[in-house]
Amino acid sequence: ATKAKAVKAPKVADPMEATMEPATQDMLRRAQKLGIDTVFDRAVTMKPCAIGMQGICCKNCAMGPCRLPLPKGGIDGEDTRKGLCGATANTICARNFVRMIAGGAAAHSDHGRGVAETFLSAARKSAKDYSVKDPARLIQIAPYFGVATTVEEDGVTKDRDIDEIALAVAEKAVREWGKPELTASYIKRAPKPLQEKWEKEGVVPRNVDREIVECMHRTLMGVDQDYKNLMKQGVRASLADGWCGSMIGTDLQDVMFGSPSPLQAEANLGVMKEDHVNLIVHGHEPLLSEIIIAVAQSQEMVDYAKSKGAKGIQLAGICCTANEMLQRHGVPPAGNFLQQEFAIITGACDAMVVDVQCIMQNLANVAKCFHTKLITTHPIAKIEQDNVIHIEFDEHYAMEDAKRIVKIAIDNFENRGADVMIPKQRSIQVAGFGVESIQYHLGGSFRGSYYTLNDNIINGRIRGVAGVVGCNNARTKHNEEHIVLIKELLKNDVLVLVTGCSAIAAGVHGLLTPESAAVYCGPGLAEVCETVGIPPVLHLGSCVDNSRILLAATEMVKAGGLGDDICDLPAAGSAPEWMSEKAIAIGQYFVASGVYTVFGYHMPLEGAPVFKDYLYKEMEEIYGGKWDCEPDPIKHAHKMIAHIDKKRKELGIDK
Ligand code: XCC
Ligand code: SF4
């Protein structure tokens, strides 16, 4: 007998259970064959903490962590659970929730700040690679910053010089993060009744940084110990994200890089090409990727790639950097959050460039198994593994930095191993919608003709509108909640607006084409989409572009016929596969803007039923919107539809 015991094979994920997307299934099988572990396998071997999941683990001081699990069989009578300091389950759960909002708001808003600072450099002519590409957008937003767009000369009103407007807007915009005045400027973009609600409740954001700092202060050990009061600050910080940091980010990106308009592109891992240099850009901020696009398309670099034996350069994106490059340039997304490791596992990724947010550290381990150069570019986001290259991006030398990066990818082409496997799957999509293009394609306004959105909602061809946004989560089947949910909404004549990883999922699964209207929609929605030639699912961009959904909702209110405020609209929000704290910040600004918002998977609230009730019920009385959670995508859709029907009834359009 030998002493050697049979080595137990490590537990791995079942590809068919892990994802509904065939290219991802194939790549997961390949990874497992090569012995490379991915997020899907780790989700099988590592289980989440049951107490953390309930939202009632507090580690806000060194007397803890204090854990307050619900007693078996629930609470009978008084809830006597408390931490060492006496913090109740409500306090702990609310503090955790508010800190998630702060984390998410910080991420979106810091992204916006980066954009605003680059815009200021551009306006001062010290960042020569950036300029005003969309003067109309600049003129549209200037008044919200109190910047005049005209000048009086000899009693005649003339258009003000665009460079002058840009500089004035930029100087005002950067101040929105830390100004001493008491109200964020963009708040006036919301419908009046909503602004009044926020004022009455005392949740009007002052400036982005202050609201996030105050979240951290109030959730510190021994400060705010009233869950309702804590949530006031959570709401205020979320509004600073949605209506300020994110919205300014979106607007100034549109000003500098051009506002998106509908365009056709491909999607999925199959967009990578065996005979091309494959350069993948991943993360969120388009400041660098915009320049990379220009460099990669330059004759100089294309010739250089050819000199190295490649036919050209294939750019593709992952996560929201993908959405940014897609909506303005038609650069195809290679995949969403859960596909990032697989772009490298193809063996054909010559370089992956990352900026900030949603970047899995395991990319470094996966890159080690191939020739892929993994390049970090942002001073706040480095990766410790020694195979990762850091090329710090500086807006003043954007073109030089981008050239260095593209050259690294090209030079690496010849190092590719023989074992390359690019999945065949790629789909066609139409992306790049925004408030203006919704208006343009649906009759030129929101109201007043056979084609407009509001009229089609009033006449019932369109039952309502849903915003389906957010991440993938390895604890749920990749893309399935998004796709099943969206299809169920379409079947019930609900027009769907998507952003983020949900938008990429919709593109990959073929829902972003005008032709899909006939296949998936109920008769009313199909008729509208076919008449005007739009997809029934509209891609509105990245996660900061959820601000476009807020503004679209505001335009629907202003156009009339659907009530006085966002909460009157037959509309609902959803993040079926959420994972990032950013999703919680987004969900909260949707709720506080009057939207019924349903999350999938689970919410870390079960351990504090009273606090949970506050979010799921009472919040509606204050803001007109409330939270909900439903993991089953069909039931999830029907909760949203029931809400839409309730609103139709209240509006008297429920024929
Ligand atoms: Fe990240 Fe924005 Fe979530 Fe996707 S959706 S996993 S946050 S990339 Ni915003
Ligand atoms: Fe425990 Fe209170 Fe400290 Fe939290 S703040 S860890 S509940 S003692």
Question: What can you tell me about this protein's structure?
Answer:
This protein is an alpha/beta fold. It has three domains: 89-257, Substrate Binding Domain Of Dnak, Chain:A, Domain 2; 269-415, Rossmann fold (3-Layer(aba) Sandwich), CATH 3.40.50.2030; 430-651, Rossmann fold. The protein has 26 helices and 18 strands. The strands form five sheets. A six-stranded parallel beta sheet has the order 8-7-6-9-10-11, with helices on both faces. It has a six-stranded parallel beta sheet with strand order 15-14-13-16-17-18, with helices on both faces. A two-stranded antiparallel sheet has the order 1-2. β3 and β4 (156-159) form a beta hairpin. The longest helix is centred in the N-terminal third of the chain and has 35 residues, at 89-123. The model has no long low-confidence stretch (mean pLDDT 97). Bound molecules: FE(4)-NI(1)-S(4) cluster and iron/sulfur cluster. Residues 58-61, 63-66, 83-85, 87, 92, 221 line the site of iron/sulfur cluster.
